[in-house]
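ingest -> validate -> predict -> emit
validate: passed (alphabet ok, no gaps, 178 aa)
predict: started
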Amino acid sequence: MERTLILCLILLLCFPMAYGGYYSKTESRVSNLRKATNLRFFFHGILGGENTTAVTVARANSSLLGPSNSIVVDHAPLTVGPEPTSKTIGNAQGLEVFAGRDTTTVVVYLDFGFTEGELNGSSISVFSRNPATETERELAVIGGRGKFKLAEGYALLKTTFISNTSLVVEYNVTVIHY
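emit:
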């Protein structure tokens, strides 16, 4: 018995157990080189017609849930100014889930991909509750790629134009990244 115990202790000391589970040893690799970038651009949404940017792909089939329960897929241009003829700098792609009984509340996931200048090939992603009937609101930046790897931050939104068929939303975004 004593020999077995000594043998087990020798094996444990000489051959330590490997990490188990779903993670590895935590190592500090994060530097203090975080940057802040401020962006300003305009989202142009068009509902219906030849140049539509939003398509409803699902709608609730129940009057109990209210009139606004649907899922919309977006692919809209981003421009440097509020005019539709402004220079296009990228596009927004994603989903909007309209869910609300009394007001129009939208849960938004959008990826803003930049196609011009220094940010070409980079993107930021937002995922947040968007009270669409309010003129000014805030969304959370939850990630990014390219120059915006490991991004976080926030986007301040302001609807600058709205009609039955189109809308223009100004985005002022603060992105914290490496």
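DSSP finds one helix and nine strands in the chain.
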